[in-house]
Amino acid sequence: MKNRMRVEFDSISANEAFARVVVAAFMAQLNPSMEEVADVKTAVSEAVTNAIIHGYQGQVHTVEICGETEGRRLTVQIKDTGVGIPDVEKAMEPLYTSRPEAGRSGMGFLFMEAFMDEVQVESEPGKGTCVTMCKQIGTDGD
C-alpha cells in the first residue's frame, strides 16, 4: 500500500520540533522501532534546520515536507525555495559549513546520511533545495 502526505510551515526554528513530530506520526503506520523513529526525527531535524538557517538565512518563508510510504519504505522530502547550494558535493563534506560565523558545525548532511538509508540533495542557486531521504522500516516484512 502507498500513502502520501504534504505539510507546509513557516521557516522559524520553533517549527523544527513540529516537523519532527509530523514525520514521526506519519511513519507510525509502518510500526517502526523507537530507534527508527529517533533516526528519522534526527535526519528531519537536520534537513529542516538547514532550510531555515542556510536556505532562508533568517528570513521567514515556507518549508515543505512531503512524505510517502510504499510497503515498508519511507521517503521524506524537505524543500525550500531559498538561496540554494552552489556546490552540493562541497556542502555535503563533513565539517564544511557556509555559516561558520553562526556557530554551525557542518555535520547536518553527515547525520542525515548516518541515520537514513539514502540521501539525495538537489539544489539550484537562487531557487532552493530539496533533500530526499529514504529509510526501510523494519525487516520482518509485515
Structure notes:
- This protein is of the alpha+beta class and 142 residues long.
- It has one domain (2-136): Heat Shock Protein 90 (2-Layer Sandwich).
- Helix content is 33%, strand content 30%.
- The chain contains four helices and five strands.
- It has helices at 15-27, 34-55, 88-91, 108-115, and strands spanning 2-10, 62-70, 73-80, 118-124, 128-136.
- A five-stranded antiparallel β-sheet has the order 1-2-3-5-4, covered by helices on one side.
- Helix 2 packs antiparallel against helix 4.
- The longest helix is centred in the N-terminal third of the chain and has 22 residues, at 34-55.
- It is globular, with a radius of gyration of 15 Å.
- The N and C termini lie close together (12 Å).
- The model has no long low-confidence stretch (mean pLDDT 90).
Q: Average pLDDT value?
A: 90
Strand content: 25-35%
Radius of gyration: 15 Å
For this entry, what is the oligomeric state of its chains?
A: single chain
Helix content: 25-40%
C-alpha termini separation: 12 Å
Task: Provide the CATH topology.
Answer: Heat Shock Protein 90
Which architecture per CATH? 2-Layer Sandwich
Low-confidence stretches: none
Order of helices and strands: EHHEEHHEE
Backbone shape: globular
Order of strands across the biggest sheet? 1-2-3-5-4
Main pleated-sheet profile: 5 strands, antiparallel
What is the CATH class name?
Alpha Beta
Enzyme class: transferase
Catalytic activity: L-seryl-[protein] + ATP = O-phospho-L-seryl-[protein] + ADP + H(+); L-threonyl-[protein] + ATP = O-phospho-L-threonyl-[protein] + ADP + H(+)
Keywords: ATP-binding, Kinase, Nucleotide-binding, Serine/threonine-protein kinase, Sporulation, Transferase
Domain Histidine kinase/HSP90-like ATPase: 35-139
